[in-house]
From TrEMBL:
InterPro entries (alphabetical): AraC-bd, Homeodomain-like_sf, HTH-like, HTH_AraC, HTH_AraC-typ_CS, RmlC-like_jellyroll, Tscrpt_reg_AraC-type_HTH
Keywords (A to Z) from UniProt: DNA-binding, Transcription, Transcription regulation
GO molecular function list: DNA-binding transcription factor activity; sequence-specific DNA binding
Superkingdom per UniProt: Bacteria
Protein name per its UniProtKB record: HTH-type transcriptional activator Btr
SUPFAM superfamilies on file: Homeodomain-like (SSF46689), Regulatory protein AraC (SSF51215)
Length: 315
């Protein structure tokens, strides 16, 4: 599993920032009623003969007055609410939206999306088309006229982040990679969906709160006990939450967040290993390198050589 974790965590590096919406000319179907947005445009003139094409996607933080109403849409779209509350209207039928709500619409689908909470919703989306598009999205159950509810929300967030990363890449295989991720996303939705309006366990909300706390404060957090204390729960309960919903331990998640950031500093900021170790609060570079290797399977200096071709200067 170490190899899989490496791929997933490295890709997540590129979804950490939340820049404001770009000032470039964007397609007319893209809403500007957002407080923050991160978008990618892979193919805005897709061939009608292709089997499956990812057009664009991204994530958005809605304004509190966000309302989008359309009678039609040029592509198929899958959207997922990560935070906040809203209302979805499909063919004049209203449905509540909350964290974990996933829905879809397509050509000739009348839809309205509205923010309802005091804080704007955060949602992810991907638009796509192609000869197989309708068949694939139908298989998810999302075109039944009702949103689905998923449990392991973070698993879908990881896939949306992967789409964001590869959708920004200029490589020759970007489209092929993104269509593969899109198909995986749809399979994951089928697997994780618990049905429209289904009751997700209340403890899942606690898990989401703790997970966000770690994501927002991983730089200063040092232990599971500290996380549990700050979130008002016991370390044992915290471990149970991550075992049930996270597919791993809370400490492993905390360390991965730290090592994600470390890899970003090493690869994107060209910082030295000892500088990163100091930034993350490790006693020395050796201790940091051991922790890094446990997550990625390779020491930081080897990762630098593999991804950049450069070697650190000898100390």
């Amino acid at each position: 599993m170490a190899g899989l974790d490496l791929g997933m965590t490295i890709l997540n590096l590129f979804g950490m920032a939340d820049p404001s919406p770009a000032s470039i000319n964007e397609p007319a179907f893209v809403s500007q009623q957002v407080a923050e947005a991160r978008r990618y445009y892979l193919d805005l003139k897709p061939s009608p003969y292709e089997s499956l094409v990812v057009v664009c996607g991204g994530r958005e933080r809605m304004r509190t007055d966000y309302i989008v109403a359309r009678k039609d849409f040029p592509y198929y779209a899958i959207e997922m609410v990560a935070e906040g509350e809203g209302q979805l209207t499909l063919e004049n039928v209203h449905h509540p939206l909350r964290a974990g709500s996933v829905f879809a619409y397509g050509p000739k689908t009348s839809h309205r999306i509205e923010n309802c909470g005091a804080v704007g919703m955060k949602k992810y989306y991907v638009d796509f088309c192609g000869r197989r598009a309708k068949q694939l999205v139908d298989q998810t159950g999302l075109m039944s006229g009702k949103p689905l509810q998923v449990t392991a929300l973070h698993e879908l967030v990881d896939l949306f982040d992967m789409l964001d990363h590869d959708g920004r890449d200029d490589g020759a295989m970007s489209q092929q990679i993104c269509t593969s991720i899109l198909q995986l996303l749809m399979l994951k939705i089928q697997r994780l969906a618990v049905g429209p309006g289904a009751n997700v366990p209340r403890c899942y909300d606690t898990y989401q709160t703790v997970r966000r706390h770690i994501e927002d404060n991983f730089m200063r957090l040092e232990s599971v006990a500290q996380v549990a204390q700050e979130c008002g729960i016991t370390p044992i309960y915290l471990s149970r939450l991550f075992s049930r919903f996270g597919g791993g331990g809370a400490y492993q998640f905390l360390i991965r967040k730290k090592m994600n950031y470390a890899a970003e500093l090493l690869l994107e900021e060209s910082m030295l290993v000892k500088e990163v170790a100091e930034r993350l609060g490790f006693a020395d570079a050796f201790q940091f390198s051991r922790a890094f290797k446990r997550v990625y399977g390779v020491p930081p200096k080897q990762l630098i050589r593999q991804h950049t071709g450069r070697a650190e200067p000898a100390e």
